[in-house]
Each structure stands twice: as structure tokens, then as C-alpha cells.
Amino acid sequence: MIKDFPPLSSALSKMIFLKLESNCIKVGEFAEVYQPKTISQNELADDGLYWVYGANGIIGKYHNYNHEESQVCITCRGNTCGVVNISHPKSWITGNAMVVNVDKAQDKVLKKYLYYFLCGYNFSPIISGSGQPQIVRNPIENILLPLPSIEEQNSIVKKIDTIVNKLQIEIQLTNLFSRQKQYLLAQMFI
Questions:
Q1: Among 38-47, 62-71, 86-95, 103-112, where is mean pLDDT lowest?
Q2: 3, 119 Cβ separation under 8 angstroms
Q3: pLDDT of residue 1
Q4: Predicted TM-score of the model (pTM)
Q5: What is the CATH code for 2-188?
Q6: Residue 16 — φ and ψ, nearest 5°?
């Protein structure tokens, strides 16, 4: 996902989303923004079937899920405040993440479009607290999202997906070449 490329997400946001000539709408006008029930670290299970998302993305597995569909979620507690994830379907999202649920507005906004937009969003102005940084619901609901047609959203998502997939392939190739180099260097000095 794009969160693996923070400079890219910011650049893509500036390049694509800021150039959109469409109406902006507050996130709270089409999304349900909430914090789900938190489970403790002790409740996580190695043999659990479902991924658990918390303040650091995936934090383990659990025997149950609280979200049937994948969801856009924003870390809202701790030093990772403002990190955006998109969960797997049938996963548990803890109260350390704020869910931005657009399941009832699929005719207005694509989930992945919202995800990509939020990946490049600057959450710094809405993070409060010095000892324990946090983001609360109201500022997220007031974020203005450019909202073009579903067709244009889909086109934007496809473009970003293509770039992200290409970067992931390049990173995999670089890692393979690095391993090959290490192997060959080791063979030279046997």
C-alpha cells in the first residue's frame, strides 16, 4: 500500500488531489467516523483467524472480527497518530484507530480513493496532546475531500495503484539483487 512510500503519497496528493476541479465535501457528510471497542494485548491470539488493527497497523490476530468489510482507519493514539491504513475484510479494528466508514456512501466515494487522499493528508494541525498525541472524531469529520464523479475517482485510484505496484516490484527486485550480490561476494572469499 501507499503508506510504505510516505514521500510518494504526499507528492501524489499534491499532484492529483489538489488539481481536482470538483466540489469538496466534509468527510462527516458521507462517512461514519468512530472508534471501535478496544481489546487488550492479552486477548490477541496466535491462532486467531482475523487480523487486528491498532495504533501500529496490524498488531496481531483475534478469534472474532468487528468489521465485515475492509475499512479506512486512521491511527488516533500515540506517536503514529495520523497513519492511514485500509484493513482486510473481516478484521478487528481497535479504539486506537478511528474508522472512516463509507459503506453507506459507495455511490459517492470509493473507499480506496478516500484512502489514497487521506494517505497524503497533513494531520499535524488536528493532532492534540503533548504527552499522548491523539486525534478526535470532529476534526476528521471536517476534513474537506475533493469529490469528483465515481468514474474519475476510479481513474485516479487506477493511476495510483499502477505507480504503487511498480514501486513494489522495483523494491522486490532491488532486494533480490542485493541478496544475489551478498551471495556472490561470499563465494569469492571461500
A1: 38-47
A2: yes
A3: 52
A4: 0.83
A5: 3.90.220.20
A6: -95, -55
